[in-house]
Amino acid sequence: MNLQKIKYFIFRFGLGWIPDSFFLNIIRFVNAFRFHKKYYLLSKNSFFGQINRMKRMIPGSDMLILADKSKMRSWLYEKHGLTGFVPLIAVFKNVNELILSDLNYPCIIKMNRGSGMNRVIRSRKELMMKSNLDAFRFWFSVDPYYYSRESHYSKMKGCLVVEEFLGGQLHDYKVFCFNGKPKFIQVDIDRFNQHKRAFYDLDWNLMELGMIYPKPEIEINAPVVLNQMIETSALIAESFKFVRVDFYVQNNKLIIGECTFFPEGGMGLFDTRMQDEQIGAMFVNY
Question: pTM above the 0.85 mark?
Answer without folding.
Answer: yes
